[in-house]
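Input (structure):
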């Protein structure tokens, strides 16, 4: 196979941090080269160097036989490299069509004047949207489509540029099983066309399905490259984290949680859009209650209604047996609720704030008046909150003054959790808490969730990963078409009966 890209001795230093140390990596035509490592291992930094976003401190890149000490975004694009970032870069205010051609509008001459060739754009857009499986009018605004469809638009953007090398950073985090299978079909087609695919994922089962080779990074250093067929999942995990990962995180206190007090109860919750219909459940002290179901089944919509982020049309919420009225996130915070949202970038943190400011904002809101409009920032308390949560959550950062966008996905998630712990929240909602997070950081998040439960707090967990629900939760509710169809103890639950209940088989 032809070598499309070769990176030799790549080192990248930021102030006070060596993000990459003498890394070598190559991409061949017709292969899926999986790049593995924990969050913060250097995977995204290496790919940003390849796409021209960062310049290496030292090293060289050979692209189409030409040697570079660094690439500009223009060099990378002209060299046939396209990257699909984990955090979606689509522009909500533009149409699907406009998103596909941002920065590369085709033109034609009309009466000697160059004008945008919308006819050609529509033709190409329809072809590529059909290829990735999006059944939408290209003129529809991106803000009107689902997260999974936005992910597919990102993939379509890469395909429309006819790149030789396509970098996919966590491409399936927002896709359903059928959408993921369709993506794999596209990837296999691209391989057959001689394209080189760099695939970054923390889903080990995917890697065995789609990968040809793996390269593992750890703390910015090179661990090794192997053929996928020659390694087991356990081998890959050990290469990544250097240790065994615990398999289950169940209640080991010996306490019968079913006999513990009910600290949270939802009764007959409904929404006008019918995405949640007459849902009731109870959460016991010290319990982790999971919610399984297909994407779009109503799980996240239920959590948003409970937290006051979206309106409910009917139903009641009780905390410690007392009815509370929550119509906004501010009121939820005041009542001791926390919510770690699915979309970390858009709703999880303030990207113009430091780690310290992100951690302290919720406890400050909780003590503020006038729905958060009246109150003062306490600098001493802010520093104390940040120092405590940095230690308790094991946040890897330069210092708490660092901007949160400079952290890896796993560490961003720890900051988000830290702000809720600083506010001493009693009921914590986790919506897809390990989305886009490596196995080592996942393990840390699970340990933190169980720690919260053991402290007597209540945890509600939405996840599309069945092994995750089965290894962490005490009970599991299965959602289908806006309703809870089945609730079972984790000792009775299997992947098979959860799938059957969620699909209606």
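Output (sequence):
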């Amino acid at each position: 196979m032809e070598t499309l890209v070769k990176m030799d001795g790549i080192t990248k230093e930021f102030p006070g941090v060596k993000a990459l140390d003498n890394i070598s990596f190559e991409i061949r035509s017709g292969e899926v080269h999986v790049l593995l490592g924990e969050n913060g291992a250097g995977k995204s930094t290496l790919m940003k160097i390849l796409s021209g976003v960062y310049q290496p401190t030292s090293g060289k890149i050979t692209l189409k036989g030409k040697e570079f000490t660094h690439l500009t975004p223009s060099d990378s694009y002209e060299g046939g490299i396209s990257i699909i970032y984990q955090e979606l870069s689509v522009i909500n205010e533009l149409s699907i069509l406009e998103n596909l051609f941002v920065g590369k509008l085709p033109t034609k001459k009309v009466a000697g004047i160059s004008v945008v060739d919308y006819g050609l754009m529509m033709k190409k857009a329809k072809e590529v949207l059909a290829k990735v499986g999006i059944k939408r009018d290209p003129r529809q605004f991106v803000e009107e489509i689902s997260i999974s469809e936005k992910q597919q638009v990102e993939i379509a953007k890469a395909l429309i540029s006819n790149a030789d090398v396509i970098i996919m950073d966590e491409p399936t985090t927002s896709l359903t099983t059928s959408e993921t299978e369709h993506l794999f079909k596209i990837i296999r087609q691209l391989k057959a066309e001689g394209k080189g695919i760099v695939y970054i994922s923390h889903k080990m089962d995917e890697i065995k399905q789609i990968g040809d080779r793996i390269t593992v990074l750890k703390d910015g250093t090179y661990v090794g490259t192997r053929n996928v067929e020659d390694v087991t999942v356990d081998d890959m995990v050990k290469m990544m984290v250097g240790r065994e990962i615990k398999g289950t995180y169940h209640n080991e206190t010996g306490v019968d949680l079913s006999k513990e007090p009910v600290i949270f109860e939802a009764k007959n919750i409904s929404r006008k859009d019918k995405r949640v219909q007459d849902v009731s459940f109870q959460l016991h002290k010290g319990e982790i209650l999971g919610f399984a179901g297909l994407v779009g089944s109503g799980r996240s919509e239920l959590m948003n209604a409970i937290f006051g982020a979206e309106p409910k049309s009917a139903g009641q919420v009780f905390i410690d047996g007392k009815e509370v009225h929550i119509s906004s996130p501010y009121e939820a915070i005041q009542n001791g609720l926390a919510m770690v949202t699915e979309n970390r970038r858009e709703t999880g943190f303030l990207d113009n704030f430091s780690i310290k400011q992100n951690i302290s904002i919720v406890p400050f809101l909780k003590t503020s008046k006038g729905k958060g409009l009246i109150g003062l920032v306490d600098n001493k308390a802010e520093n104390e909150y940040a120092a405590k949560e940095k230690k308790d959550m094991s946040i890897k950062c330069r210092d708490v003054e660092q901007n949160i966008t400079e952290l890896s996905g796993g560490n961003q998630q720890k900051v988000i959790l830290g702000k809720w712990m600083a506010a001493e929240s009693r009921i914590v909602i986790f919506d897809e808490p390990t989305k886009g997070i490596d196995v080592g950081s996942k393990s840390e998040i699970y340990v933190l969730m169980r720690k919260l439960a053991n402290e007597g707090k209540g945890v509600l967990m939405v996840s599309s990963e069945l092994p995750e629900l089965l290894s962490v939760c005490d009970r599991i509710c299965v959602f289908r078409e806006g309703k809870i169809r089945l609730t079972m103890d984790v000792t009775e639950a299997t992947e098979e009966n959860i799938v059957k209940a969620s699909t209606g088989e």
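Notes: The chain has a mean pLDDT of 87. The chain has 17 helices and 22 strands.
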